[in-house]
Structures are given as C-alpha cells and as structure tokens.
Specification:
This protein is of the alpha+beta class and about 200 residues long. It contains 4 helices and 11 strands, in the order βββαββββββαβαβα. The chain is globular, with a radius of gyration of 16 Å. The N and C termini lie far apart (about 40 Å).
C-alpha cells in the first residue's frame, strides 16, 4: 500500500511504501527543532516541540516529481543530512551521511493524507518518544515502548548492513553520494536556531 507525499506547494511529489515503514516516532531533539526553525514553517513542530518522523527503509521512499527542488542542509560538518523541498521549504527526510546506513527518517509533514489516515496506517505519533528531555513542555514517555521501537527501527538497519545493502535513491546516487551537497550552518547559527531564533539568524 502506498501513501502519497507532497510538499506544501505541490512541486515535489512522491510516495511512501507502507510495507517499508518500520515505526513512527516523535523526536524532541534540539536539532530537529532547529531544522523546523531553519525552514521557517508554522506547524512543523507539535505543541511541545516535537517532530513526527516515520522510520523507513530508503527504497520505501520515492520522489516522482520535482526532484530538482530537493535540497539538503546539515547542522554540523558531520551531522545528519536533512532534506527539504526548496520551493516551499517543506521538510522531507533525515538521513545519515553514510549511504551504507539503510535508514530514512521521513518527516510526516510531507505525507499527503488526512491525520486520521496517517494514524490508521502508521499508528499514533506519540507511541515512541525520543529525546523527551529537550521537549518544550512535559512529555510522557515509556522506556518499554522506546526499546520496542528501537528494535523495530534498528533491526532492519542492522539486517541491511549485514546483507550489504546501500541506501540509494532518492537521496543518494548509485555510488552512495548525496544527491545534493548539504548547506552546513555555522555553529553560531545552529545555536541561534536551537534557542528559537529566526531562520536567518
């Protein structure tokens, strides 16, 4: 079963193969919060500063239109690659810099489906909570659910590494190189974004 993807202006489109969606989580880390502020979009974080992420196999994510609009940034020279639609600054996904890590954290803000349909297909967004200590308001988390979620997420990643599978498209080419050279923000700008400063700070 496929779920459509779409940036806010509609130039970037694609699909998520739900068979390759391992788990759904809410991440409250400071860098995910900073990424949302970098993009400058309202509604990208929940009321407590969380980002809704779908842990997926890379080949479960496909871009079918607007690949030329896909851009990349990173919070540090060795940080995660954070992908977004440059046309309207919609977040798309987070990936490792290493194409051998068979994982894509699809940002649910780009899912083109009603919230109820997303919940039905992927489960509630707060089932797995990560980095609750950085939330902007108290967050209820369960260590048992976190550990169970970790198995669902990293089990396939480890299995893919043992089988020698590489990430590939849509965010890496056949040689394992990122589709785009990432814009790496300065330490000062990263700190400003983490504090809640504007995108251009």
């Amino acid at each position: 079963m496929l779920m459509p993807l779409r940036c806010r202006c509609g130039q970037v489109r694609g699909e998520l193969d739900l068979a390759g969606a391992h788990a759904r989580a809410t991440c409250y880390c400071r860098d995910c919060q900073a990424f949302a502020r970098f993009l400058g979009g309202d509604g990208l974080l929940d009321a407590r500063g969380g980002t809704d992420v779908v842990a997926s196999a890379p080949d479960a994510v496909r871009i079918t239109a607007g690949i030329e609009q896909v851009a990349c940034m990173s919070m540090s020279p060795r940080g995660l690659l954070r992908w977004y639609a440059a046309c309207c600054r919609t977040p798309l996904a987070n990936t490792s810099r290493d194409a051998k890590l068979y994982y894509t954290g699809l940002v649910a803000a780009c899912l083109d489906a009603a919230p109820a349909a997303v919940d039905e297909a992927l489960g509630p967004r707060d089932r797995i909570v990560a980095n609750a200590g950085s939330a902007t308001a108290p967050v209820e988390s369960s260590m048992l659910r976190f550990l169970a979620g970790g198995v669902r997420i990293f089990g396939p990643v480890i299995g893919a590494r043992l089988r020698g599978r590489r990430a590939g498209a849509p965010f890496f080419d056949a040689q394992g190189r990122p589709l785009r050279e990432p814009e790496v923000v300065s330490r000062e700008r990263r700190q400003a974004l983490q504090r809640g400063g504007p995108a251009g700070a």
